[in-house]
C-alpha cells in the first residue's frame, strides 16, 4: 500500500489526519492481496481492470505507475483497456486507454487533447 506521502493531496491529508484509519485501510488492502493465489503482474492487472470498471482516472493512473515500477510491460496495461471494450463499451475503454497512455507515453498532468 502507498505511503501517505505518495498519495494524492486530499487522500494524503486524510491519511495524515487519521493515521490509524489509514493503517487499517492499508492493512485491509494487503490482506485482500494475500487472500488467494493471484499475485505479481496478474494482481496488478486485475487491480487496473477494476479501476477501469469503476471509471476512476486517478486509480488507473496509480495502478499504471505501480505496474511500470514492477516491470509490467506497457503493452499489457493497454491490453487491459482493450479487453474492456466488449464488457464496458467502446467509450469507457477508449477513456481508459487515454488514462493509461497518460502514464505509459510519459505525458504528465491531464490527458492531452487528441486530434
TrEMBL record:
<dbReference type="InterPro" id="IPR029032">
    <property type="entry name" value="AhpD-like"/>
</dbReference>
<dbReference type="InterPro" id="IPR003779">
    <property type="entry name" value="CMD-like"/>
</dbReference>
<feature type="domain" description="Carboxymuconolactone decarboxylase-like">
    <location>
        <begin position="19"/>
        <end position="102"/>
    </location>
</feature>
<protein>
    <submittedName>
        <fullName>Carboxymuconolactone decarboxylase family protein</fullName>
    </submittedName>
</protein>
<dbReference type="Pfam" id="PF02627">
    <property type="entry name" value="CMD"/>
</dbReference>
Amino acid at each position: 500500500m502507498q505511503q501517505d506521502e505518495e498519495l494524492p493531496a486530499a487522500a494524503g491529508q486524510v491519511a495524515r489526519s487519521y493515521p490509524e484509519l489509514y493503517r487499517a485501510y492499508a492493512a485491509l488492502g494487503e490482506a485482500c492481496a494475500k487472500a488467494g493465489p493471484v499475485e505479481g503482474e496478474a494482481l496488478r492487472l486485475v487491480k487496473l481492470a477494476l479501476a477501469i470498471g469503476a471509471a476512476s482516472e486517478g486509480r488507473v493512473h496509480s495502478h499504471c505507475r505501480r505496474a511500470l515500477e514492477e516491470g509490467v510491460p506497457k503493452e499489457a496495461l493497454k491490453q487491459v483497456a482493450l479487453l474492456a471494450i466488449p464488457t464496458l463499451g467502446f467509450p469507457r475503454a477508449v477513456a481508459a486507454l487515454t488514462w493509461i497512455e497518460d502514464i505509459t507515453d510519459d505525458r504528465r498532468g491531464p490527458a492531452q487533447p487528441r486530434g
